[in-house]
Amino acid sequence: MTVVYFDSPMSDDERRRKLFGGDLFVYSPTPHSMALVAFAREMAESAFAPHFPPDAQHHLAGPDYVRVLADLKPTFINHPRSKELVRGMLADLGADLEQTYFDVPRLRSMTSEYLNAGLTLQFESHRDTWFSAPMSQLNFWMPVYDVEEANVMAFHPPYFDAGVRNSSRDYNYAQWVAHGRTAAAQQVDMETRKQPEAEEQINREPDIRVITPPGGVLLFSGAQLHTTVPNTSGRTRFSIDFRAVNRRDVEVRAGARNVDSECTGTTLGDFLRATDLEPLPADLIRSYDTVPA
Ligand SMILES: [Fe+2]
User: Fold this and answer.
1) Is 293 within a domain?
2) pLDDT at 206 (0 to 100)
3) CB–CB of 255/149 below 8 Å?
4) What CATH number has the domain bearing residue 162?
5) What SUPFAM superfamilies does the record tag this protein with (predicted)?
6) Taking the C-alpha atoms of 57, 63, 69 and 70 in order, what is their torsion angle to the nearest 10 degrees?
7) Is residue 85 part of a domain?
């Protein structure tokens, strides 16, 4: 059974327990999620001007489009206001800010049948925990503009408890940072970077797709198998997502059950405390930072 909780008043502790069991939470737009969406729109609209960002793909040549994104995304990600608004959102949603650590919010784009590589990469079915995320990681996702069933993300809940053969054994986060990420901006047409992927056929039916208005928040475990569905909507989907962990969960290794992740290393070094943007203690990060065999 997978439960989708809508605007649940549940406490953060209880909610994390449910998320670790595979349930999903959906929230109406909050004051800070709306502010974050407004901030992203402002930035995207000025970057793509005079085009409306969801339609800009129809007006720009591939390299020009990629160039705009290559500038827009890091600007949004690294902007101090983005982090402030994430902190506000976490507070809106009842998280304990002293214990909650988040990674910078990403602005993502998914073009419709156009440029499926590099910065516009269309992800195959995966769990974030195949990418060195801790089992206690929670993902927050929200659309920046209206979305529809053909340009959102699909969840495959039967796999929450069932392992999938996958290549995460070859993935180490520190190695990825050193070699992989910098190559992303150079890849327009072909995806050659090595990413963990399923090594068996995934049964994608049935799936769950959640459609919220812009700024509506979808909250799920990083162990949830999910797919970005091929975008056939004719419009580019823009979304914002970020990851968060609760420090107590990290310390006691609470989280979803690991059914199939064999990656090494950890992304925990990227997480910042919601109150003051301090990282987790170095020894705690080190205790997760395993090395390839
Ligand atoms: Fe993901």
Assistant:
1) no
2) 85
3) no
4) 2.60.120
5) Clavaminate synthase-like
6) 170
7) yes
Residues, beta carbon < 5 Å, ion ligand 1: 128
Q: Which are the contacts of 201, defined by CB distance < 8 A and separation ≥ 6?
A: none
**Binning pLDDT at 50, 70 and 90, where does residue 204 land?**
confident
pTM of whole model > 0.90? yes
* Burial label, 50 (beta-carbon count in 10 A; 0-12, 13-18, 19+): exposed
> What domain count does the chain have?
1
CA of 139 to the centre of ligand 1 (A): 8
What torsion, rounded to 10 degrees, do the Cα atoms 58, 61, 67, 69 define?
20
Residue 143 to residues 58, 63, 140, 219, 282: CA-CA distances in angstroms?
A: 20, 25, 11, 12, 34
Å from CA of 9 to ligand 1 middle? 26
User: Which residues constitute the domain of residue 24?
Assistant: 4-288
Over the stretch 50-79, which tens digit does the pLDDT of each residue have?
Answer: 999 999 999 998 899 999 999 999 999 999
Evaluate whether residue 97 is within a structural domain. Answer: yes
Q: Give residue 50 CA to ligand 1 midpoint distance, Å.
A: 31
Task: Decide if 84 is inside a domain.
Answer: yes
Give the distance (Å) from ligand 1 centre to CA of residue 238.
Answer: 15
CA of 48 to the centre of ligand 1 (A): 26
